[in-house]
């Protein structure tokens, strides 16, 4: 078939494509199928060689594992870096990334992409343990073990999972990346996957063939699911794009995290300087207060209250209250604060399509952490003279880090939610901003870890820092601008209504305004025709 040209009634020439699109689609499909088959065959070959205990492969695996162990083991900092990189391929981080992406897609009503991520991820989760149980290969044994991992060795779950998870996320969100940066994004994902695989060999928990098998199997499964998605599109009558465009190019606006935000901050350098100055001033306030409480309250009523409250709370200790206070105290520790932040911030991006509220929360928590650590180290205040249920902690008593973190997080969330949500349940976030810090404060004093003035220090830290960030970042600027516009329209409408009601008709209202203007200033009289025309509309 060749291209043909036809002339329509309007005189324009329309050209039919002929075999071109079909040929291009077939070529892409065949190449994709060959890549999937190659990945599957490569994995199958490695699986067969491992099962047969092929000596050359075993010798290569053991020599590579031992050689990398000899290079890594004498350098603890290198081991630390390798373990940190390996965490990027851990199940916890990848599950969080995929879950966040699925929730974002569902909120943005891109259900098909969400289903693709779920199916692809579940497949990887099933393949890894099944094949490990089937093969039953033991992990490497090296001279100086620097890491341990449970379960069998073949294939590498980190290599398989990272290939599938990061590859699927790349295919879904690639349309949101500008064309000039797409090659960079692809290269970055490839670098992450390769780095994760390398760490598993270097840490001595996988053989080289385990990692290669994980990559090949992951690529094959990713290819199968991507091909199935393309068939799904074709069956629904949609264009089947090249994978270099992503799975759904038309979803670019919805898969972009913050499509409605032109710039994060209007003057970033000025804002950074203001935040830095505010941080220094807040630290100064905390240091002066903490120094005064530590060195100049001995024998005063302040010391009596500070030491008396923990002693009084100690008299109520029971096993049940100890457990309850432990739970409340954990609500303010680093892990729980981080967990709440990692849940709230993605929801903010998905719902409000802006980064500025996320920046507000991130800076609130980062600033709180640095202020707490700096002030605690500078002040060095001893903890209350009672039994400490949490044992000896590395930081001093003033200010309370648990309470400050809880206050900053939940106050920041309330600041963001209150003006953006009109339903009654927005007040639940205000209640959380009161209840959570109160519960954590009582638990920390009950457990003998803090004085009441430490709680005061946490409150001062929160008030100063959150106020500063609210003033500099203006996290609700988009909502405020919208409210001002609505208010302006409302005032304008009220003025027109008053004029119309007073004069009996729009024309009379214009005459009334013009009459009033004639007795006033010349400028008012000159503005009268505009008002008349406006009211008449």
From TrEMBL:
<feature type="transmembrane region" description="Helical">
    <location>
        <begin position="275"/>
        <end position="293"/>
    </location>
</feature>
<dbReference type="Pfam" id="PF01569">
    <property type="entry name" value="PAP2"/>
</dbReference>
<feature type="transmembrane region" description="Helical">
    <location>
        <begin position="334"/>
        <end position="352"/>
    </location>
</feature>
<feature type="transmembrane region" description="Helical">
    <location>
        <begin position="30"/>
        <end position="54"/>
    </location>
</feature>
<feature type="transmembrane region" description="Helical">
    <location>
        <begin position="455"/>
        <end position="473"/>
    </location>
</feature>
<feature type="transmembrane region" description="Helical">
    <location>
        <begin position="114"/>
        <end position="135"/>
    </location>
</feature>
<feature type="transmembrane region" description="Helical">
    <location>
        <begin position="359"/>
        <end position="380"/>
    </location>
</feature>
<keyword id="KW-0472">Membrane</keyword>
<feature type="transmembrane region" description="Helical">
    <location>
        <begin position="155"/>
        <end position="177"/>
    </location>
</feature>
<protein>
    <recommendedName>
        <fullName>Phosphatidic acid phosphatase type 2/haloperoxidase domain-containing protein</fullName>
    </recommendedName>
</protein>
<feature type="transmembrane region" description="Helical">
    <location>
        <begin position="425"/>
        <end position="443"/>
    </location>
</feature>
<keyword id="KW-1133">Transmembrane helix</keyword>
<feature type="compositionally biased region" description="Low complexity">
    <location>
        <begin position="501"/>
        <end position="511"/>
    </location>
</feature>
<feature type="domain" description="Phosphatidic acid phosphatase type 2/haloperoxidase">
    <location>
        <begin position="358"/>
        <end position="470"/>
    </location>
</feature>
<feature type="transmembrane region" description="Helical">
    <location>
        <begin position="184"/>
        <end position="205"/>
    </location>
</feature>
<dbReference type="InterPro" id="IPR036938">
    <property type="entry name" value="PAP2/HPO_sf"/>
</dbReference>
<dbReference type="InterPro" id="IPR000326">
    <property type="entry name" value="PAP2/HPO"/>
</dbReference>
<keyword id="KW-0812">Transmembrane</keyword>
<feature type="transmembrane region" description="Helical">
    <location>
        <begin position="84"/>
        <end position="107"/>
    </location>
</feature>
<feature type="domain" description="Phosphatidic acid phosphatase type 2/haloperoxidase">
    <location>
        <begin position="111"/>
        <end position="226"/>
    </location>
</feature>
<feature type="transmembrane region" description="Helical">
    <location>
        <begin position="400"/>
        <end position="418"/>
    </location>
</feature>
<feature type="transmembrane region" description="Helical">
    <location>
        <begin position="211"/>
        <end position="229"/>
    </location>
</feature>
<feature type="region of interest" description="Disordered">
    <location>
        <begin position="492"/>
        <end position="537"/>
    </location>
</feature>
